[in-house]
Amino acid sequence: MKITVKDGTEIYYKDWGTGQPLVFHHGWPLSSDDWDAQMMFFVEKGYRVIAHDRRGHGRSSQGSIGHDMDTYAADVAELTEFLDLKDAVHIGHSTGGGEVIRYAAKYGRDRVAKAVLISAVTPIMVKSESNPEGVPLAVLDEIRVSTATQRPQFFQDFTIPFYGYNREGAKISQGTRDNWWRQGMMGGIKAHYDGIKAFSETDFTEDLKSVDIPVLVLHGEDDQVVPFPISGAKAVKLLKNGKLISYPGFPHGMPATEAATINADLLAFIQS
């Protein structure tokens, strides 16, 4: 299913089941398919599960504009209004975590009951004078160049640190790697290139401080993409009503590789 938002962009979404709505926000450069393990688990538990492909990603329009966090959040606001979602739990992975907290802070006052930030880019990734432990801009520029010039191979290679498959004893799933690459290559290169700035340079500090709803922060302590000390560990301290669960040894892509653990902790939080 698709909706057309105000600038003419078509946003693809899935909407299954009935009950309290759970809205899933995917990471860069993926699609709503990245939530398969959660969508199946929660629809069978009696929830209404919704996931969309961010503009420029997956099956949504591949326009050249709007690949920034404010527009991402505005697209979510249009989708939630169109579906008239109330008492919803918004769950975001990586870039999607930033999208969740920006949406909740700006638009979600009467619609969002709780939020979950998984391996999220909050509060800010890039290194600066005010964020000296952040990821150096040079590292992010390398990701930009690789995305712009050798995206198919770069996306193959990126799955290794994403899922912690470079760690001793890791059980590598080729299907999981292939599925990541498939999702990535469905999206538009311009959206993916611009999205790097959106996920790394957006400052979510004020968004985190402003929300009153319960927020669960889940982060792998062995996250090689969004390191735990600069993200989850910091984000929870900015929240008025935050709870942190960190997982020794878990990678950035833990909703896929550690789905049973993540799903159980999500369910406990949603039901709490």
Structure description:
- This protein is 43% helix and 17% strand.
- The mean pLDDT is 98.
- Helix 2 packs across helix 3.
- The chain has 10 helices and 8 strands.
- It has an 8-stranded mixed sheet with strand order 1-2-4-3-5-6-7-8, sandwiched between helices.
- Structural class designation: alpha/beta
End-to-end separation in angstroms reads 31 Å
- In order across it, which strands form the biggest sheet? 1-2-4-3-5-6-7-8
Element-by-element helix/strand order: EEEHEHEHEHHHHEHEHH
Put simply, the count of helices is 10
Low-confidence stretches: none
What percentage of residues falls in helices of 4 or more residues?
40-55%
Estimated radius of gyration:
17 Å
Index terms:
eight-stranded mixed beta sheet, alpha/beta, globular, 10 helices, single chain, 272 residues
What's the arrangement of secondary structure elements?
Layout: E1 2-4, E2 10-16, E3 21-25, H1 36-44, E4 48-52, H2 69-82, E5 88-93, H3 95-106, E6 112-118, H4 137-162, H5 174-186, H6 189-201, H7 205-210, E7 215-220, H8 232-238, E8 242-247, H9 254-257, H10 259-271
Parallel strand pairs: 3-4, 3-5, 5-6, 6-7, 7-8
Antiparallel strand pairs: 1-2, 2-4
Helix pairs in contact: 2-3, 4-5, 4-6
